[in-house]
Amino acid sequence: MTKTCLLLIIGLLAVLWPEYAAGQVLPVNPALEIGGMLPFLLKKEPAESAPHKLVFYLNEGGTPVAEGQAFRRVEVSYRDSVVGVVRLYYPSGKLYKSTPYANLANEIKHGVETMWSEKGQLMARTEFFANLAVAITSYYPNGKVQSHVQKLPDGLKTEFFDSLGRRGHYELPSQQAWLPGQSDRQVPQWVGEEDEPVRRKEKQKNKL
Q1: Strands 111-116 and 145-152, how do they pair?
Q2: Is there a contact between 181 and 13 (Cβ–Cβ < 8 Å)?
Q3: Which CA distances in Å does 55 have to 3, 38, 58, 81, 103?
Q4: What is the C-alpha separation between 172 and 169, in angstroms, rounded?
């Protein structure tokens, strides 16, 4: 598989299949996610047009419980009766994720979603437009950008960087193709741009 094909696969998975991106590209913590529970949590709440905040306490299975029995906390901040922001928290009380919604009841994300480590470091940033992820950026613990995938009118723009901010890409050890989900798939290897001249010389030497 060529470098271009590999990058297109990773980019397509990240932008067109959010569930794969959540599990493979972004540092998601499944124990803290609420999945499709938002409408269930909100359906019993009376509609209010003024800005207000709702707080829900959930156990590890996602069932609403009393505060003293909670594993995690979910905050829903309404700007009006439709628009608002959902914040998910670690059991320690630290912010895990903040997601803006154009329509909370229908779970339509719109704006910039941020994901944080328990130490307060930004791990990922996803831009949503009418519930479509149009740009995904992940970060190293030192704050440097690890990857950036952007949906453009004429296709996808995918960039990868090492922890020092140097651009590069991923390649498979061999040319054997693989598909996501295969148990015997190869692990892509990092190749920095600074390594390219040496690698080209090695390839030319091997052809002789």
Answers
A1: unpaired
A2: no
A3: 47, 12, 10, 16, 18
A4: 10
| Strand-pair partners of 114 | 98, 125
Strands 95-103 and 84-89: antiparallel
Cβ-contact 101, 83 below 8 angstroms? yes
111 with 120: CB under 8 angstroms? no
Provide Rg for the chain, Cα atoms: 21
pLDDT tens digit string along 63-95? 889 999 999 999 999 999 899 999 999 999 999
Q: DSSP class of residue 82?
A: S
187-207 pLDDT per residue, tens: 566 677 766 555 555 656 555
Which structural domain, as residue segments, surrounds residue 167? 3-207
Task: List all residues 6 or more positions away from 182 whose beta carbon is below 8 Å from its beta carbon.
Answer: none
pTM tops 0.85: no
Q: Which of 90, 133, 95, 92 is nearest to 111 (CA)?
A: 133
C-alpha 150/C-alpha 127 separation (Å) is: 9
Number of domains observed in the structure of the chain: 1
Which amino acid is present at 77? S
